[in-house]
Write a structure and sequence with these properties.
mainly beta; Jelly Rolls; seven-stranded antiparallel beta sheet; globular
C-alpha cells in the first residue's frame, strides 16, 4: 500500500513538472483548462488569446479538426473566435474586430463573429443573430477583396442564431486534398466551403501550415473558449517547427518555480535579468486570482489565502509566455 501511494505521488509530481499545454502553444490571455480545452479570453475588455498546434498540417493530405467553441453568455459581449491556417511566423494578431488574428498573413481564416463592426462591413444588426464567414491574409472585412467566396451557395456571410448563449457549439473543419476544398460545419451542418486552390490562392507553393484558434475582445467582452475534440495525430501533422514556437527553453533555463506542491509560499526566481516580467494566477475555471507586476529576480508569492487545489500560473515578459500547473496543499 505504501509503495502504491509513493508511486501515485511521484506520478503527480511528474505531471506537475510537464509542460501544461503539451501539444499547443498559448499566447497572450489564453490559458489551459484541461482535456484539450482552452480559455482564449477572459471576460475582460481589450484582450486577445491564441493557441497553436506545435506541428504543421500537410495540405497535401486529408484532415479533419473537430472542436466545440463557447463564445460566452453575454448577448452584448464581443468579439468572437476564429479558426486559422497560416504559414508565417506571426502568432499574435490584434483584438476587438480583429478577433486576435488581424495582421497574420498569409492565412486562411474562419470567423465566428458575435459583434457587429459596421466599419468592417458586417451584416446589419439583427436581434439575437451572429455571423460566420471566411477571409484571407489577416483582414476581416466583409466589404473587401479578402472576404472569400462560399462554394455552398452565393451567400458569403452566414447569419446564425445567437452564439453568445453560454453553450459549447460543435464545429468541424474538413480538408479534402484531392478537391482542394475545406468544408466548415457548424452544429453538424455544412455552411461554408472554400474550393479554390489554396496553395496558389493564399499560400503560394507552401503546403505546410500552422493551425490554431484565436479570440479577441474590445470595448465589449465575453469569456471565450475552445475544446479541441479531434485533430490529426498521424501523417497529416509534420514536425517542422521553423518559427521557434516552443517555450521549453525559456522555462527551463530562465526560471525556477518551487516548491510544487506548495503549502504557503511559492518561490519564483529568475536566473538572469528578464525585461518587465509579470505573473498571473488562475483557478481551473480560468478565473484570475492574483496578479504580480514588475517582478524581481527573486520573488516570494504568498498563497496562504488560497483553498487547496490545482492552479495555473502564467509568467510573461515582452517576448515569451510560460504556463505551469501548481498544486496548493
Amino acid at each position: 500500500m505504501k509503495n502504491t501511494l509513493m508511486l501515485t505521488f511521484l506520478l503527480v509530481l511528474l505531471s506537475l513538472s510537464y509542460r501544461v499545454e503539451a501539444q499547443f502553444i498559448l499566447k497572450n490571455s489564453a490559458i489551459p483548462l484541461g482535456n484539450d480545452c482552452y480559455q482564449l479570453t477572459p471576460d475582460e475588455k481589450s484582450t486577445t488569446g491564441q493557441i497553436w498546434n506545435e506541428k504543421k498540417l500537410d495540405l497535401e493530405k486529408d484532415f479533419t479538426i473537430e472542436a466545440t467553441i463557447n463564445l460566452g453568455a453575454k448577448n452584448s459581449g464581443a468579439d468572437g473566435i476564429t479558426f486559422i491556417l497560416q504559414s508565417s511566423c506571426l502568432f499574435e494578431g490584434s483584438g476587438a474586430g480583429g478577433i486576435g488574428v488581424s495582421g497574420i498573413k498569409p492565412s486562411f481564416i474562419v470567423e465566428f463573429d458575435t459583434f457587429r463592426n459596421s466599419s468592417q462591413g458586417d451584416p446589419p444588426d439583427e436581434s439575437g443573430k451572429d455571423h460566420i464567414a471566411m477571409f484571407r491574409n489577416g483582414v476581416i472585412k466583409h466589404n473587401s477583396f479578402y472576404h472569400l467566396n462560399n462554394d455552398v451557395g452565393s451567400i458569403r456571410t452566414v447569419v446564425v442564431d445567437d452564439m453568445e448563449n453560454g453553450e459549447d457549439i460543435p464545429v468541424r473543419f474538413t480538408w479534402i486534398a484531392l478537391d482542394k476544398s475545406l468544408g466548415i460545419y457548424y452544429m453538424d451542418s455544412l455552411i461554408l466551403r472554400y474550393k479554390v486552390n489554396m496553395f496558389n490562392d493564399i499560400f503560394g507553393d507552401e503546403t505546410l501550415v500552422y493551425w490554431g484558434f484565436t479570440a479577441g475582445t474590445g470595448g465589449s467582452s465575453n469569456k471565450q473558449s475552445v475544446c479541441i475534440t479531434s485533430f490529426p495525430r498521424d501523417e497529416a501533422l509534420v514536425d517542422n517547427n521553423t518559427c521557434s514556437l516552443s517555450i521549453e527553453n525559456f522555462r527551463e533555463k530562465s526560471i525556477d518555480i518551487f516548491p510544487n506542491p506548495v503549502r504557503n509560499i511559492l518561490h519564483v526566481n529568475f536566473k538572469s535579468e528578464i525585461i518587465t516580467p509579470s505573473l498571473e494566477l488562475f483557478d481551473l475555471n480560468g478565473k484570475q486570482i492574483k496578479v504580480v507586476n514588475n517582478m524581481l529576480l527573486n520573488n516570494n508569492i504568498s498563497l496562504n489565502s488560497l483553498a487547496s487545489g490545482t492552479y495555473f500560473i502564467k509568467i510573461r515578459n515582452q517576448q515569451r509566455v510560460i504556463i505551469n500547473k501548481i498544486l496548493k496543499l
